[in-house]
Design brief:
The complex is a heterodimer of chains A (about 80) and B (about 350).
Chain A (H helix, E strand, L loop, with lengths): L5 E5 L6 H11 L6 E6 L4 H12 L2 E8 L2 E7 L3
Parallel strand pairs in A: 1-2
Antiparallel strand pairs in A: 2-4, 3-4
Chain B lengths: L2 H7 L3 E5 L4 H12 L3 E8 L4 H8 L12 H9 L2 E6 L1 H9 L12 H19 L3 E3 L16 H7 L6 E2 L11 H4 L17 H9 L18 H14 L6 H6 L4 E6 L2 E5 L3 H8 L6 E5 L6 E5 L5 H13 L9 E6 L4 E6 L14
Parallel strand pairs in B: 1-2, 1-4, 2-3, 4-5
Antiparallel strand pairs in B: 6-7, 7-9, 8-9, 8-10, 10-11
The chains are: A alpha+beta (about 80), B alpha/beta (about 350).
The structure holds iron/sulfur cluster.
The site of iron/sulfur cluster has 12 residues of chain B, from helix 6.
Amino acid sequence: MSDYDLEVDARGLLCPLPILKSDQAMTTLPTQGKICVLATDPGIERDLPAWCAVNGHILVSMTQQGRHWRAIVEKGS
Amino acid sequence: MTHASIEKTGVIRALGLLSGGLDSTLAARLLLEQGIEVGCVNFHTGFCIQSHTSAIRNPKPGAPPPRHDALHAAQSLGVKLHMVDISSDYVRIVTDPKHGYGKNLNPCLDCKIFMVAKAWAMAKELGYHFIFSGEVLGQRPMSQRRDTFPVIDREAGVKGWLLRPLTALRMPETEPEKMGWVDRSRLEGFNGRGRKPQMALAKKLAITDYPSPAGGCCFLTDENYTRKLRDLWAYRNNRDYSMEDILLLKAGRHIRPAPHFKLMIGRDQSENLFLSGFRKGRMTIQTKNTPGPLTLVEGEITAAEDRLLACRIAARYSKGKDLPTVQLTVDDGNVTEVVEVTPLPAHELPDHWHV
Ligand code: SF4
C-alpha cells in the first residue's frame, strides 16, 4: 500500500508551479488525504513548508537526493 | 457574503493582492492591526522574475534556496494565501493590451485591471467584503497614477470596493471606510517613488524580513527579455506564445543567424541543465572533445550550410574556441551524428545576431 492518495509530479517545473500543482491536487482530497510531491526545483525546500503552514497542512516528510525532492503532505482541516 | 454576515458575526473580511514585496505586506498589516480578517491572493502570470531566475541559477553554495515571496509574506503575516495560475488567460493581456505597453512589453494597466477584477470575483465567491492592494500613488509610471487608479477601479468593476491602505488619505473615501469597517485615520497617505515612509512603517510594525524592492514585478519590464519576446513574435509572424517559449527566453545566450532559426546557448552549468529540459522537439548541439555549453536550435534547419553555421557558432562558445577544429555531437531527435568544425571567429559573428 502506498503512503499517499495522489502523486504530484512536478519534476522539471520551476517555482511556483510545484506549489500550484500541489494546491490543485489538495482541493480534490478530503481532510487527512495525502499527496506525494516530486520536484527538482530547490525552491521546494522552503516553499513547501511555508505553503503547508499558510494552509494548515501537515508536512509529513521531505527527503532530498541530489536535485530530487520527495515530500508527503497531509491535508489539514 | 453579504453585509448581513457582518451584522451577524461582527467579522470584516478583506482579500488583498499580495506580491510579497514590502508594500503589499504593509497594506495587509495595516488592516490586520485594525482587527480585520485578511486573506490574500497571488497570481502566477508565467513572467514572475524572482521565481524563475532563482530557479535557473544555482544558489551560491551555502546560500539558502530561493523562495516564493508571497508565500513567505503570507506565512509571516499569518494569513491565508490563494495562489492562482492565470497564465493561460494572461496571454491575451500580453499580446493585445487595450491600454498598450509601458516602457517595455509591460501591459501594466491591463494587467492590474485583470488582476483586480479577478480578485474581486474571488472575494465575492469566498465571502470577503472588500479587496485591497499595496499600490501607492505615483510609484509606478503606468499603473499607479492619479488618473489610472480610477480607470482600474472602473474597468475592473470594483469602484469603491478596492482600498489602497498605503495611499488612502490621498484618495476619495472607499465604501469600507464609509461603512465604518475601516478606520481611515489609521491608514496612510504615501505618495511617489520614495521608499522611506514604507521603511519607517515597516520598522514601526517590526517587519524586518522583506525582499529588496525590484524594478518591476515581472520580466515584461525587463529590456533584454522583451527584446527576445519581440524577436520571437517577429519571426513567428504571430504574437502567441507557450509557457515553454517564455521560459526559454529567460535563459541562455540567444543568437539568430537567420530568420528561420535561433540558437540558445547555455552560459553556465545551471543554464545548461535548465536548457537540457527542453531538448524534446529541438535539435541539440553539444561539444564532444572539449568542454562546452549545450546549444538548442529553435526552428527547422535542414540545409547543410545552416547546420554547419549552427555548429561553428556552438563551437565558438566552447573551451575549444581557439582550436583549429572542435568535435560536436548533433542530435536532431532522430539521428545523432558527430561533426568536426572550425569555431566561428568573433569577427564573423555580427552584433545584430545577438537577440
Ligand atoms: S510589472 Fe508585470 S506584473 Fe506588474 S503590473 Fe506590470 S505587467 Fe503586471
